[in-house]
């Protein structure tokens, strides 16, 4: 199929998503406890936007003409990698689905999507909409199931040519092993994170506190780029702690269908218990619990927005990805010190910097080993901005033209030249 034809189908797919925004947002709320209002306003429209971005790229996939040193005419072809297996997580069922599927379809690949067992509903509905949009049978396949069975089958399958996985670092290792032991399929991984959020003395403290709250508690902390390691320069540290606690206490936790609610429930009992366990670990390690730290109500998996101070860099709550509404606050003095602290992690997914000093912003953005650096903003995702990690946060980019390239492979074609007046 031509890129033009693929683009037309992807645009139709996006049209159908926009016609079903309410239903799709409801499915993700029911499955994952996500705020319905946020899904309706951001997640679902964002999926359509991303589809349209890659629909526009589908007929602009070009190779190059090579200026060879001998009497040869050479050029490259950009070809679809083949069948792509996508294993996607439960925290952003729609967003992650289209991070993976949109560029793969634009490139001309067929895809097999294994949604998380906690959140299969929207993926199944997207398969239905794709068929209505005119996607040929067999091009988009959604296979619900559990990781150790369905996920493992996709990872080890000899007819899957490329594998993309988003999830924990531990499972990422298993995915790489399965790919290596089967047909050596290439793998791209978007794994855990423990992102630093760094506030300097010159920051507007109200803006910084609100941004830190946004970075740490969005989607009840169930987000790989959550800015939960909060470093605040000593000059404003005490004032920051006081205001951050006030903002956290005002957060409304409850029914994610209620538009007045700021935070819904954790996705399931396992995640709920994991977060509470880490809160207990933080207390035992000697961190000071400033606010939160308890379950909300006597029904459901609700947890109060939680803030710890007196956190040391080697504590579990400062090193491990908790994936819940837990903020670890730490103090620093100098730029050099906070660079070292920010990089003292096995992860490298993102970082936030709040400062009015362009020199500090430039120094920090070039010194922190992370794939996305957000200055005076956070969660600044955009279809044109590549996203992916350093270190144990994985490799391979989503979004942007980088996201398209990983579903293409380059073929070189060479023919002899005879009686040509120039090379």
UniProtKB/TrEMBL annotation:
Record key words, sorted: NAD, Oxidoreductase
Residue span, Aldehyde dehydrogenase domain: 1-413
PANTHER family reported in the protein's UniProt record: ALDEHYDE DEHYDROGENASE-RELATED
One Pfam family this sequence matches: Aldedh
Catalytic residue list: 190
Family named by the database record: Belongs to the aldehyde dehydrogenase family.
Molecular function per GO: oxidoreductase activity, acting on the aldehyde or oxo group of donors, NAD or NADP as acceptor
Protein name: Aldehyde dehydrogenase domain-containing protein
InterPro entries per UniProt: Ald_DH/histidinol_DH (IPR016161), Ald_DH_C (IPR016163), Ald_DH_CS_CYS (IPR016160), Ald_DH_CS_GLU (IPR029510), Ald_DH_N (IPR016162), Aldehyde_DH_dom (IPR015590)
Originating organism: Urochloa decumbens
């Amino acid at each position: 199929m031509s890129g033009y034809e693929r683009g037309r189908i992807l645009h139709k797919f996006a049209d159908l998503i926009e016609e079903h925004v309410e239903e799709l947002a409801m499915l993700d709320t029911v499955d994952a406890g996500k705020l319905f209002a946020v899904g309706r306003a951001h997640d679902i429209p964002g999926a359509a936007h991303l589809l349209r971005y890659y629909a526009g790229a589908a007929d602009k996939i070009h190779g190059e003409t090579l200026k060879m040193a001998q009497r040869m005419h050479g050029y490259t072809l950009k070809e679809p990698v083949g069948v792509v297996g996508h294993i996607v997580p439960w925290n952003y069922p729609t967003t992650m689905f289209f991070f993976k599927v949109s560029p793969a379809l634009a490139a001309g690949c067929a895809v097999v999507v294994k949604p998380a067992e906690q959140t299969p509903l929207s993926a199944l509905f997207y398969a239905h909409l794709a068929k209505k949009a005119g996607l040929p049978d067999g091009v988009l396949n959604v296979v619900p199931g559990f990781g150790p069975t369905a996920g493992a089958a996709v990872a080890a399958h000899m007819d899957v040519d490329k594998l993309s996985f988003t999830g924990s670092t531990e499972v990422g290792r298993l995915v790489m092993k399965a790919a290596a032991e089967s047909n050596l399929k290439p793998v791209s991984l978007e794994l855990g994170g423990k992102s630093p959020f760094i506030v300097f003395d010159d920051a507007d403290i109200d803006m910084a506190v609100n941004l830190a709250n946004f970075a740490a508690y969005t989607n009840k902390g169930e987000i790989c780029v959550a800015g939960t390691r909060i470093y605040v320069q000593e000059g404003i540290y005490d004032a920051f702690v006081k205001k951050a606690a006030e903002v956290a206490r005002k957060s409304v936790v409850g029914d994610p269908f209620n538009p007045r609610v700021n935070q819904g429930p954790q996705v399931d009992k396992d995640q709920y218990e994991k977060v509470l366990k880490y809160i207990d670990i933080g207390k035992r390690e000697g961190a000071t619990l400033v606010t939160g730290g308890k379950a909300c109500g006597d029904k459901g998996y609700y947890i109060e927005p939680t803030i710890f101070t007196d956190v040391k860099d080697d504590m579990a709550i400062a090193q491990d990805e908790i994936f819940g509404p837990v903020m670890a606050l730490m103090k620093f003095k100098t730029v050099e010190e906070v660079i070292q602290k920010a990089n003292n992690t096995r992860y490298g997914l993102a970082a936030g910097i709040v400062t009015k000093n362009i020199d500090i912003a430039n120094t920090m953005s070039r010194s922190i080993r992370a794939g996305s650096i957000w200055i005076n903003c956070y969660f600044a995702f955009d279809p044109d901005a590549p996203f992916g990690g350093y270190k144990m946060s994985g490799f391979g980019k989503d979004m942007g033209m980088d996201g398209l390239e990983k579903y293409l492979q380059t073929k070189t074609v060479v023919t002899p030249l005879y009686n040509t007046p120039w090379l």
